[in-house]
Amino acid sequence: MDTRNSDEKILDSYSQAVSGVFQKASSAVVYIEVKHQGQGSGSGFVFTPDGYIITNSHVVHGARRIDVCFVDGRRIEAQLIGDDPHSDLAVIHVGLHDLNFLQLGDSSRLRVGQIAIAIGNPYSFQCTLTAGVVSALGRSMRSQSGRLMEEIIQTDAALNPGNSGGPLLNSSAEVIGVNTASILPAQGICFAIPVNTAKFIATELMRSGHVRRGFIGVMVQNVALPKGLVHMGKIPVESGVSITSLERGSPAERFGLRVGDVIVGMDEQLVASIDDLHKLLAKFAIGHEYKLTVIRDFEKIIVSIVPI
Asked: Which end of the chain has the least Cβ crowding within 10 Å, N or C?
């Protein structure tokens, strides 16, 4: 067997796949210039034919003017539809029609090792392609707001400043993630927000300009539970969130929560940290009643609450 010819065929196939994605997708990837107190830039991609574009919140947050540059040379001022610092996602819009746009894939079907292709504008070098693989799934990282972002995709497709907001694509040219960050000075450790998160956030931003998350009106801090209490009370967590203050007129005050209460569960979901509570308040429907599992005076009680 001629291994050299076999290797060339494999490389040829890989090269054709990557090149094919670029040919399909590059015209829908845009360069974004932003003016606020200073000037910045990033990437984005068209996901509807009538000019809606997904990018990162940190690219456009606080902008006085947003300009979008297409690969064919067109430069259009964009309108900010909404941005969500908690997920580091934003939607902007340009008044054009019949645009080439990217298909949004399904990040729940991703597998470690599959091809991952990034297109963006690192250091203002427009329409740059890098390729690698999905290195890991289910990572967590902090957004600039401090909230934990879940199910983050790790990739070794090179990302640099300016790639933020651009698409991470599979071999079918479907968006699987929104490129958001890299670890410097590490090489090959880059991150993307999963496209399923982007679908939800983009829909909310297009509907109302912001993302509503459940609010109960408490200030909390992480606390460890006494081991004896965990054992005697049959509590399946060793930590919870202690209420340090209540907002006047909030659901927490109206439904009888108290300073010093420690929340350890919400509707049979465990709450071991502030991040757990944030995640559940983002997940559960506003205006519905839920059951909080609370430790009060060394006793486990259930308190009903309706997030607003």
From this structure: N
